[in-house]
Design goal:
The protein contains 2 helices and 2 strands; from the N terminus they run αβαβ. With 88 residues, it is α+β, with helices and mostly antiparallel strands. The chain has a two-stranded parallel ribbon. Helix 2 (54-65) links the parallel strand 1 (42-47) and strand 2 (71-76). The longest helix is centred in the N-terminal third of the chain and has 19 residues, at 14-32. The protein is elongated.
Length: 88
C-alpha cells in the first residue's frame, strides 16, 4: 500500500497509533532490507490539546527509547481544547 490514513479522534490516540505503525514498519524493514526494500516514513498530525493525555507522553518516550527515525510528528498549536485552553 502506498499510504494508510487513520483518524484517531480527539482522545490523543494518534501519536500512539503512529508510534506503533513506525515500530512495526521498522521491525518489518529489518527483513525487507535484505531484499533491497526501503522503510516508510510515518507522519502524525495532531493538535496541542492532545498533549494533555498521558498516553501521548508514553508514546513519545517509547519512540525515543526505540530511536524511531521513521516517525515525524507535526503539532498544530491552535490553543483549542474541548474543556478550555491547553496547558502550556
Amino acid at each position: 500500500m502506498p499510504y494508510v490514513e487513520n483518524s484517531s479522534g480527539p482522545l490523543g490516540e494518534g501519536l500512539s497509533q503512529a508510534v506503533g505503525m513506525a515500530l512495526a514498519d521498522r521491525m518489518n524493514s529489518s527483513v525487507s532490507f535484505t531484499r533491497g526494500e526501503q522503510s516508510r516514513t510515518i507522519y502524525c498530525f495532531m493538535s496541542d490539546g492532545e498533549h494533555d493525555e498521558g498516553n501521548t507522553w508514553e508514546a513519545i518516550m517509547l519512540a525515543g527509547k526505540n530511536k524511531l527515525r521513521n516517525l515525524i510528528a507535526v503539532v498544530d498549536r491552535n490553543n483549542i481544547q474541548i474543556d478550555g485552553l491547553p496547558k502550556t
